[in-house]
Design brief:
Number of strands: 4
Radius of gyration: 16 Å
Number of helices: 1
Order of helices and strands: EEHEE
Helix content: 10-25%
Strand order of the largest sheet: 1-2
Number of domains: 1
Structural class: alpha+beta
Largest sheet: 2 strands, parallel
């Protein structure tokens, strides 16, 4: 048994890392701040979080969206509304 506070992937329901890894066998992947993963196919569902006010981030995300769609993935886009809610766009 690992000492308290030690990072052991199998004991952690959420694994935060800057590496493209899945040591705890997670079903869901969240990437943020223009990060990318080469392991998208290994997850049940993937989420890309980005700043819609950042034109470069939006352009990069659009390109990945096209690639995901071309690869046969189901893609959905949600946009935050002015009052803080979320609206499904496609």
């Amino acid at each position: 048994m690992a000492p308290p506070g030690t990072a052991t992937p199998t004991a952690k329901p959420i694994w935060l890392t800057h590496l493209d890894e899945n040591p705890n066998g997670a079903a869901f992947l969240f990437v943020a701040d223009r990060a990318r993963s080469e392991r998208m196919a290994g997850y049940k569902r993937c989420f890309e979080l980005f700043d819609g006010r950042d034109e470069t981030a939006v352009a990069e995300t659009r390109e990945r969206w096209k690639a995901y769609k071309a690869a046969g993935h189901t893609v959905v886009y949600w946009q935050q509304t002015p009052n803080g809610g979320w609206e499904k766009k496609s």
